[in-house]
Amino acid sequence: MNRLNLFRNPLNRWLGREEARPTVPVKELRERDRRRMVRHFLLLEGRDRVLRFGSLLSDEQVTKYVAGIDFKRDMVFGVYNRMFRLVAVGHLAFAPREPAKEGVTAKARVAEFGVSVLKSARGLGIGSKLFERAGIVCRNNDVDTLYMHCLSSNQVMMHIAKKAGMAIEREHGEADAYLKLLPADPSSVMREAMQEQLATLDYALKANVRRATKLWERLPRRKKPDNS
Ligand SMILES: CC(C)(COP(=O)(O)OP(=O)(O)OC[C@H]1O[C@@H](n2cnc3c(N)ncnc32)[C@H](O)[C@@H]1OP(=O)(O)O)[C@@H](O)C(=O)NCCC(=O)NCCS
């Protein structure tokens, strides 16, 4: 199957409309997705694992990282392909807000974003879409700075950061990228809600297709009559 077809919007295909880029439904992940997240991260090998985590974490450390994600504090997003595999994960970790002191305004609230897309799904705009969603969620959660740490040799991520208008500070082969965000407005709230609703529908559809396929595969096959 053409890998682009994994994310094609069936409605556009039916209408015969060309899509510049496939639709990417970004879904918020929860507790129940932990196992799939572990599977996703374990598929990142060598350099990709270094780029995502800053060092070559062992499988055990990756599993620990996922087990340590606090879904009450942070937000995690994912993208599923047609085969219901989690091909991309974005983790938005909110830093605790420092309480305002007398006569001093409260400090800016910051969130850090980390993202990974499996090799088979790269170049389709998924990484950018996850980043865009993180920005909207930050705005809607009163976060004014979105932060990302990566190696400055990570040209793809540097490209995404520059495209989003991030300020980048490079030092000793590493880069810190900051994006100042506008406060929430009705359109940012609406966009987040609509994206999540679309992704929830997409998720339910893919989960049902997956369940039906499994069931079909388990059905006993009728034996062909023996004509000999
Ligand atoms: C970085 C990563 C998340 C990007 O995911 P992706 O889904 O392929 O990204 P997108 O398709 O949204 O965008 C890729 C962009 O980089 C551009 N690009 C591709 N190769 C490039 C290169 N060598 N140099 C510069 N830009 C490049 C593409 O043209 C595209 O830009 P466009 O949208 O303006 O056309 C993915 O490569 C990945 O998981 N890497 C390993 C982990 C990692 O580096 N994480 C980031 C640190 S937290």
TrEMBL record:
Keywords: Transferase. GO terms for molecular function: acyltransferase activity, transferring groups other than amino-acyl groups. Gene3D superfamilies: 3.40.630.30. Residues 24-185 form the N-acetyltransferase domain. It comes from the Bacteria. SUPFAM superfamilies: Acyl-CoA N-acyltransferases (Nat). It holds the Pfam family Acetyltransf_1. This is Acetyltransferase (GNAT) family protein.
